[in-house]
Amino acid sequence: MFDCLNKRLSSIFSGLRRKGALTEEDIGSVMREVRVALLEADVALPVVKEFVNSLKEKAVGAKIIESVSPAQMVIKLVHDHLAELLGSETQQLNLAMNPPAVVLMAGLQGSGKTTSMGKLALRLRTKQNKKVLVASLDVQRPAAQEQLAVVARQAGVESLPIVPGQPPVEITKRALHEAKIGGFDVLLLDTAGRLHVDEELMAELREVKDLARPIETLLVADSLTGQDAVNIARQFHETIGITGIILTRIDGDARGGAALSMRQVTGQPIKFMGTGEKLEQLDPFHPLRIAGRILDMGDVVSLVERAAETMDQKEAEATAKRMMDGKFDLNDLLSQLRNMKKMGGMGSLMSMLPGMGQLQDKLDGVDLEGGFKKQEAIILSMTPQERQFPKLLNASRKTRIAAGAGTSVQEINKLLKQHQQMETMMKRLKKMGKKGMTRGGMAQLFQGMR
After folding, report:
1. Which of 60, 86, 112 is the last residue of a domain?
2. pTM of whole model > 0.85?
3. What are the C-alpha distances in Å from 35 to residues 292, 435, 447?
4. Predicted confidence band at 293 (pLDDT cuts at 50, 70, 90)?
5. Residue 437's domain spans which residues?
6. Other beta carbons within 10 Å of 87
């Protein structure tokens, strides 16, 4: 997400950094470039105008022009302004009421409501220890209620039993009753969608909302619909009043303009974003972190959080100890590859590292995930003894492994070279120890690794 905007802004600021001082003319030129970048990212025109005008007023100031590092000051201004546009602070789901807290989820058909409900239910159960009941009010789409029941089982939460032919309002009444007598903390209501916004849909939503009195009304919007998502958000908010937004399919949206526009148009925060198809892939929306990613400053905090959530602590400690002892065999390499896969893959991790936007051109067309799968297949085609002692791999063994992994001997040699470099690094790490590292040993550690 935001790849196009990241690329354009990185290019703009790269040129800006080469200037010793900035004139008002330079500022104007930068603002024009920022305007074009935002429009290309599919940000709504009124939002772009307001953003650029407000930013220019702040940028054309004596403190900026006379600053020792004017480019950095302008970049910081753009960062802060983007964060403000995205909502400044992370907005948590509001469940502050006597249980059951009702959360109503609305959106068009195909926006990902049912899957998002499963993701949210799983998050509430595992992260907040809530007892969750889900109920489908969608009597329009065939098998919609059965689909939610399946998703609920996958998320480990209960779903309201299906009564064929019951209308949405009656289902809502039954869900409220079951949630109260069952001692549930949260009731999630999945409403019906349409292929477009219509009066029938809105009338049904208003009726359900009046009855359920939800503490949160979340709009689920597909980020791939671009400007249409912005118009949809405006119509839903004006008609039923939403309290937050869940953006889905952001992993497939390179522009991200919908996210920048929807918050501004509705005045309501983006609370979550779906980062993939799995139920675990629902992340809180952090405006400051997202602004940092857009400007190629990285998002190390989210990277660390994801590592803490997905990696086994005992396994990580054991691996770290082996590394400090200078040991690193192919089993360790396989473990690292699998950990990266759990964390969302190499592409997802690299998007969180500072400065990666400047390397994007070199990485375009490189199949990082495919390369990892190939490496994993190679290691799995080895015997336990070969993984532990890679020096055993002679020509005949490599030929056998290549056939088993469906690859070439050249790919095996490439993997072994990569492992050898990492093993050499681990041995240097052991030799230097902690004191050596603190005395500027990083240069020695990576010497010869190119």
Report:
1. 86
2. no
3. 18, 50, 43
4. low
5. 302-445
6. 23
